[in-house]
Structure formats: C-alpha cells, structure tokens
Write a structure and sequence with these properties.
The complex is a heterodimer.
Chain A lengths: L7 E9 L6 H16 L3 E10 L12 H11 L6 E3 L12 H14 L43 E7 H6 L8 H11 L1 E5 L5 H6 L2 H5 L4 E5 L3 E2 L3 H9 L10 H10 L4 H4 L8 H8 L8
Helix pairs in contact in A: 2-9
Chain B lengths: L4 E9 L6 H16 L3 E10 L12 H11 L6 E3 L2 H4 L6 H26 L7 H7 L5 E7 L1 H5 L8 H11 L1 E6 L5 H5 L2 H5 L4 E6 L3 E2 L2 H9 L10 H10 L4 H5 L7 H9 L5
The chains are: A alpha/beta, B alpha/beta.
C-alpha cells in the first residue's frame, strides 16, 4: 500500500466485553484517531472492535452473538471502525496478546509486500509460557516486529481501567504485557486527573516502553459504563442517547438485560484467573 | 386509582448546538417523574433562545432550530418550538413559560370544543367533558441544577420572575452525582418556600457534553461523533456553521439579560 506522506499507518484494536457497546466505547476510537493525527506522525486507517468470547466467564456476560450484533449495529454509521468476531467465535478464552498477534498477522498477510514466510505462528510450538519473578523479559526480535515494511502498526486501544488492570494478580502474564507494549503499543484514553501516568511510572516494564504508550485525555466527562447501562435497563430507565439508537432498539426487542442475565457466571471464576492461578504461584512484579 | 397529572417539560437554552446530553435531560426527567407515581409526562419542548440574547458564539436561530429538529426526529415525545426565537427581542424565561402554558390551555379548550361539537347535546355536560381530561397539564422548566445557583447572581433574574417560575410552574433540575443542589435551595428563602415544586434528579451516568467544547472541537476539526447525532454533524458540515468567525461573534457584548435587568432595575419589586 502506497504511503506517500511517510506517516506511520495505524490500526486500532479494542478488546473487551462490550456488554453492551456504548457511546463511550465508540468515543474511544474517535479520540484516539484525533490524537494520533494531531501528532502529525500517524495515519489511522482502521478501527477494530473485538468482543470477548463467552468462555471469558465474566459475570453478567451475555451471549457473544448478541454482543457482536449490537457492536455491528453501533458501527454501521462509521466508515472506519468495524467489528471482528474471530475472538468471540473461539471455543476457549484467548489472551489479548493472541488476539493482537492474530490481527497483526492478518494485516501482514494481506499486504503484498510481505509473504507468508515472515509470518510467525500464533502459538510457538514447544515453548512453555514461563513466569519469571522480578525480571524484565527481553522481547525476541525474530517475532513479527512493527518495523516490517508496509504493515500498519496495530495498537491496543483501551481505557485507563484496562491499563490499571495490568496490576491485578493473575489477570495478565508479565511477558504478554511486555510484548504488547514493546511490539504493538497502547493507546489509553483517560479522564483528567487520572492515575494512569503514575501507574506507568511505578512499573518498570511500562516505563521502559513508555514511548509506545500514548495517554489521551478525553475532553468530555464520559462515564457511560456498560454496568450502568445494564443497571438502568433492569430498572426500566431510559438509555437513549447513551447508546446508539439501533442498539437500544435491539436490546428492547430481545429483552437482553434482566436480573437473571446479570447473574450469569456469578458462581464461576473468570477464565484468566482460572488459567493462571492453576499454574505458577510465583509473584510477578509489573 | 388516582390518575396521574399530565406534565409538559420545557427546556430553554442556546442549543448551540443541541447535544446528546440535552436530550438525555428529558429522558432522565421523565423517568424520575414517572417513578414518583404522580405524573404522566406527555410532552417535551425545546425552546432555543432568541438571536438577540447576544451570547458569544451564538449562531442564527434558523440553524439551531434546524439542528434540534434533526436531532429530535427519532423522538416521539420531544419537539422544538420556534416561538421564543421568533420574537423581536430576547424574552425572559417566565414569559416563555407563560406562553407555552397558555398554548396548552388553548389546546385543551380546543379539544373540549371538538368533543362538544361531535357529541349529541344531552350528553355533553361539563362533568362529562371534565372527566375526559380532568386536569390541564402542568408545565415545568427542565434545567441543570446550576440554574438554581444563577438565581442568586445579582441582576440576572428578576425576583418576581423566580417566584412565579417556582410557584406557578415548577422546576425539574438535573444534577451530576456528587454535587449538592439542595444547598442552593436552602440558601434561598424563596426557593425553600417552594421546594416541593423543585424536583431534583441526579444523573448517575456522567455524560457532560458541553456545547462550548463541541463548538471548539468542530473549529479544530476534531471528531464529535457519538456526542451529537450524526444528522446534526452532517448539517453543521454542510453549512459550515461553526468556525473561528462564528465563535468570535458577540464577543464582549453584554448579554441581553443583564442589559434588560439593569435597565429595569428601578421598576422591580
């Protein structure tokens, strides 16, 4: 793909429950795109919404089919943000890094400049995922690096809550976080006065790659969380103008959110916690 | 079963431009009033202010009305009314309230006449007609709770207007979670006297979309998608409404309200 103005092409990927998608989720993309364009160095060419699979087992998570459909309805009016259901159609829960790798590979292989010989398998055979306490893990450069010619950079788009969730024990693997910020990059939308900067400063791993972590302050105080939307719906309150109208109509038609739906997975442990708690018990320092 | 009082909500403001937050205020107010069990909200009216209000950056009422109409296309109960903007000069809020209240009475009377004329004479007793619509709708001013604060700003409101607004009509004030509008009421004798007619509604889902920020963003070429309806964004782009130039309009002018109260000061009370 020709890139006459020498700006780095960027694709934004947002992972999450989207249970349901709200105007706030959609705003993240707009804010990130404006920010990157204003630096003069980037050209955002695509946004991808990747709803998490049902196997994530988060409390109140309703069927992926509905969540994907609502996201598609919400992005119908967008000419650059689209929904991808690869992650949600997997049988097992996938780490965010794997979703990033998948999409990066997809971008690379659709680019004529790169043949498949440069591609790296998603799961490296025979390589155990080790956890090493208190050491920063060097990133192997034989992985598909962002400098590969012609391939857009794929950056993870998120809110400050995801960034800070890096610190929750057993939720993320340190080596995953490292690879995400080293090879891809993070765009984190924050509220004024937020702790994101402090959080990055206090983490050796994040600090090392701080140039690849972009903090974008939103200029509207926007607190439209899916949790609050679900709560309002249970109470028969209006959510108009907080979610796209097509999403509101879809929720109403299918009566998606109720006290029963809120209780789904109540007795179940979140997939990543299940997975990592079973494994190594060593503490890892972010 | 006691029947609910029909109620109309009126919001005055610049709507420069209308945003998702403006429309959200109506939804919040309606939910709240319905939950009290006493009211049935039958209509919402958006009344954009007159061009002569003189506020900085205020674009022509023609555009502000058109944008509001586009925004409300999908609403089945809220509408825009151009009366205030069509007056020759800026009109005080209480006068706008009076106008819309009289309009609703007129409309009620008209409906009664219609029924009277279509029914055989012996059945059209006053009792029967009253039973069709026992009460005329109440009209309440819908606003942010910060308006309570502005009541105490010197020379911005006439004292007798504030009294008429809270006594005869009533307020529905939306405030954000964590703020305390009750103190504004307790700090004012007048408001305390009529506090039963001031409905306080808390917005738990923060969504503060300031129209000023929207205009600035548009001037800078930043995205306002999902903050205001797509149809309004297209309209703004098509007519190139918000520019550096439009933002500079009325800069330095005293707003009409101040002028009006300064001028009439000797005639109040």
């Amino acid at each position: 793909m020709e890139n006459p103005d020498n700006k780095t092409q960027v694709v934004l990927l947002a992972c999450g429950s989207f249970n349901p998608i709200t105007n706030m989720h959609l705003r993240l993309f707009e804010l990130a795109k404006d920010y990157l364009h204003e630096t003069g160095k980037y050209n955002v060419i695509k946004g991808i919404i990747s709803p998490v699979g049902d196997a994530y087992k988060k409390k109140s998570l309703i069927s992926a089919n509905h969540r994907v459909t609502m996201a598609k309805l919400a992005t119908e009016s967008s000419d650059w943000v689209q929904v991808d259901d690869w992650e949600s159609s997997q049988n097992e829960w996938l780490e965010t890094l794997k979703v990033l790798r998948y999409h990066h590979q997809k971008l690379a292989s659709s680019n004529p400049a790169n043949s498949l010989q440069n591609a790296v398998p998603l799961i490296k055979p025979g390589r155990k995922r080790k956890q090493e306490a208190n050491r920063y893990i060097p990133v192997k450069k034989n992985q598909l690096s962002p400098e590969t010619k012609g391939v857009p950079q794929l950056k993870l788009l998120c809110g400050a809550d995801m960034l800070e969730s890096f610190g929750i024990p057993n939720l993320w693997k340190l080596e995953d976080i490292t690879e995400i910020v080293a090879n891809h990059g993070l765009i984190c939308i924050t509220r004024a006065g937020n702790n994101a900067q402090k959080f990055i400063y206090e983490s050796d791993t994040l600090w090392q790659h701080k140039n690849n972590i972009h903090l974008v302050e939103e200029w509207i105080t926007n607190d439209i969380s899916s949790t609050k939307i679900r709560r309002a719906l249970r109470r028969g309150q209006s959510v108009r103008y907080l979610v796209p109208d097509a999403v509101r109509a879809y929720i109403e038609k299918h009566n998606l959110y109720s006290p029963e739906s809120e209780d789904r997975n109540a007795e179940v442990i979140l997939a990543p916690l299940q997975k990592y708690a079973r494994g190594c018990k060593q503490e890892q320092t972010l | 079963m006691k029947s609910r009082i029909p109620l109309v909500l009126l919001a005055c403001g610049s709507f420069n431009p209308i945003t998702n937050m403006h429309m959200r205020l109506f939804e919040l107010a309606r939910d709240h009033l319905h939950q009290t069990g006493r009211y049935r909200v039958i209509e919402g009216i958006i009344s954009p202010v007159n061009n002569n209000y003189g506020k900085k950056g205020l674009v022509s009422a023609r555009h502000r009305i058109a944008m509001a109409q586009l925004a409300l296309e999908t609403s089945d109960w809220i509408r825009v009314d151009p009366w205030e903007s069509e007056q020759e000069k800026w009109t005080e809020t209480v006068k706008v309230l009076r106008h819309h209240y009289n309009e609703s009475l007129r409309w009620l009377q008209f409906r009664k006449e219609l029924v009277r004329n279509n029914w055989p004479t012996e059945r059209t007793t006053e009792d029967f007609l009253s039973s069709l619509d026992p009460v005329s709708p109440e009209l309440k001013l819908l606003c942010g709770a910060d308006i309570l604060k502005t009541f105490s700003t010197p020379n911005l409101w006439k004292e007798e207007h504030i009294k008429e607004i809270v006594e005869k009509f009533g307020l529905v004030c939306i405030s954000r979670a964590g703020s305390d509008p009750v103190q504004y009421i307790s700090e004012s004798e007048l408001l305390t006297q009529f506090q039963h007619n001031i409905h306080l509604v808390t917005e738990q889902i923060q969504n503060e979309i300031s129209a000023t920020h929207i205009r600035h963003a548009l001037c800078k070429g930043l995205s306002v998608k999902y903050l205001i309806p797509d149809s309004v964004i297209s309209y703004i782009k098509h007519y190139n409404i918000y520019t550096e130039e439009s933002e500079g309009k009325n800069k330095g002018d005293l707003t009409s309200a101040y002028e009006s109260t300064q001028h009439n000061d000797k005639h109040t009370k």
